[in-house]
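Risk register update: the risk of archive-format incompatibility is retired. Evidence:
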Amino acid sequence: MSKWSSPDSAIESEWLQALKQGDRNAFTQLYDFYWQRLFTVAYNYTRSRETAQELVQEVFMSLWVKREELVVRTNLESYLYGAIRFRLYDLLDKQKSASLYADYAAYTQTAAEETTEQQLAFAETTALIQQQIDTFPETTRQVFLLSRFEGLSVAQIAENLHLSPKAIEYHITKALRLLRLHLTDICLLLLYMGCM
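Archived output:
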C-alpha cells in the first residue's frame, strides 16, 4: 500500500474494531497512515505548521478518547477528513469572532474617547459661556437666565421682574449680541486647546 493510497475497507474496518477495543497498535497504524494526509489538509488552510499539527493532534486525541462510542457512517477516511474540516471551520469561526471583537473593542474605545473629549469640550464651553453671562449687567443677566435656562416666556419674565415686555426683549437681544461677540473668542480658544 503506497503512502497516499487509501486502505481497503477491510483494513479500515479492522482498525476501527481494534480501536474501539482500545488496541494501541491499531491506533498507531491508523495514526501513522493518516497523520500526514490530515496535516496537509490543515496546513493548506492555515499556512501554519504549528496550528496544523495542533489540529491534527486534537483530531487523533478525540478519536482515542471517544473510541468506544465512535460512530463511523461511511468509512474511517471520510470520518477523519470530516473531523479535520470541522476543526478548521471551528478555528476560522473563532478567528472571525476574535477579529470582530477586536474591531468592536477598537470602535468602542474610540467612541468612548471621542465621547469623553466631547464631554470635556462641552463642559469647557459651558464654563466659558457662564463666565461671559456673569459679566452682563444685572438685569440683562437675570432676563437671559430666566429666558434661556428657566424657559420662561417674555410675558412671564416681564411679570416676575415688573418690567415691560419691550424691556425684556431688549435685554434678551442685548445678551445674545454680547454672547455672539465673544463666541468667536470662545471657539478660537477651544480650537487652540484642541477641544474642537
